[in-house]
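Many introductory courses stop at the sequence. We go one step further.
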Amino acid sequence: MSDAADAVVVGGGTVGGWCAYFLRRSGLDRVVVLERRTLGQGASSRAAGIVRTQGGTPWAVRLGEWSRRFYLSQHDEIGIDSGFTEQGYLLPCFTQADVLAAHERMAMQNALGLDVRWLEPGQVDALNPTLAPGLTLGGTYCALDGYLTPPRNVTAYAVALATSGVQVRERVAFTGLVTDDGVATGVQTSAGPISTPLVVLTGGPELAAVAGLAGIRVPAGGVRHQVAVTEPHADLASERVPMVFDLTAGLYWRPEEGGLLFGMSNPDEPPGEAACVDEPYLARMRQRLAELVPVTAGLGLRRTWAATIDYTPDHLPIIGPATGGRQTLTGVTVASAGGAGMMWGPAVAKAAADVALTGDTDVVDVADLGLDRFDEDGNSKLATDPIALPFPQHAPQAPGKLTIP
């Protein structure tokens, strides 16, 4: 264990891993990652891999597009990539209210440079012949959206960390901060202290607990997310199946190994850690999927899994300094992708690295994405991103509150 570093990143998931790489690439000599398990052992290796630029807010659009471009550039930069596959993403509309919201959203996305277009009902059916015909009132579509392979993403950032010289400390837990008059001077770990002027706290669904060890209240939570993959079928060939997000049910799907991968979260489930499959809810979502994609009704499931993923009350990321009220803990940055680790992770990581180093970033406007947008009860002053999984609207009361020794 090194006893000194230029920066310490807590958490070895997608955000923490890529953040450490970006810090090292910025010129810092000694960057350390603390991971109490092993790299990517949490939700990062159990995600569905969706990379969607069609966000419901300008923040989501910019984060998704930055991440997409980064995935495309990885091989040239580090000699390995996360397996990004351009597939196209359809967001169908089922009501007139859906249509109105989609057109307003598309105008915002196009103004930010995205190539998102409107499809009439017949065009939706032609683009996606597996979809039951005549069900939609149209939808928005972006051909550049795609997906990656989550375990390969973990491999990619593990390689990036190793080749760039980041010191990865697996099975070493963060246990607290060392401060001097409100300024971070180091971290406490299960293997001893490390002196450092910069600390970035990540941790996905465990971020609130991690931050609580530092005396910082972060209104983020964890909730079960389920994914399943059907057996192969000729009608589900990848050229016949764009990615689809049914916002009404909170159900998405994409091609996978000749079958269909689909994922879902139950908005009525209380927050908390859960890694087993909720069979009744899976059956409910299978029924919805069969209504929309009839060929899946008779297919068996090849794989099912669940993971605890993070969420924030407004479904937006957290990127900013450790603050509470009018207090700021100098040298500590907090970063959460809000359940969109594959979709926004690299962009959130780069923005967090920039904020830690300079206080600002050109990845996305972070002025309103910090902890100061939340009140004491965890309520956000920002409107909820409308294009998100149906996570709970309020985070559980996070442990700890900012204390400046």
